[in-house]
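Quick start: what a row looks like.
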Amino acid sequence: MKAKDLSTPKSKVISVYSDTSVESALKIMLKSHFTMIPVLERESDRYIYSLSTSDILARFAETEDIESVKKETISSIAIGRLIVPCRMDTEVEILTDLVVNQNYVPLVDEDGKFVGLVTRKAVINYLVDRLDECKGE
C-alpha cells in the first residue's frame, strides 16, 4: 500500500503560508486545536516545514515586545523540530517509521508541492486492520 492510499487531501488540511503573520497563524492553530501545521510557499504550494505552537511560544519568550512578534511573518520563527515529508508513492511501511516520531507525514509530489498528509491515526488503523486480517487466517 502507498502513502496516497491513506492520505488526507490538501483541500481538507489546515495549513498556512510562510508569509502569514505570527498572530494569524496562532489564531488558525487555536481555532483548529492543532498544535502543529504545515507551512507552504505561497507561489508554488511547496511544503517548507511544519510550525508548532511551541515554536511560537519560544519566539515570544525571546522578547518583551510581544506586539512586534505578532506582526512578524512565521518565516521568522525558528523551528524546533523537523517534520519529514514523503512522496505519494512511498510505501506504508516507511511511513510507520516516521509516525513513531511525528503526528503526521506531509505528502509532496515530485516537485515538492504539498498534496496532503498521512496522520498517525490513519497508519495505526491500517496496521490494526492488517493485524486483524492476519488473525483471521
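That is the whole record. DSSP finds five helices and seven strands in the chain. The two ends are 20 Å apart (CA to CA).
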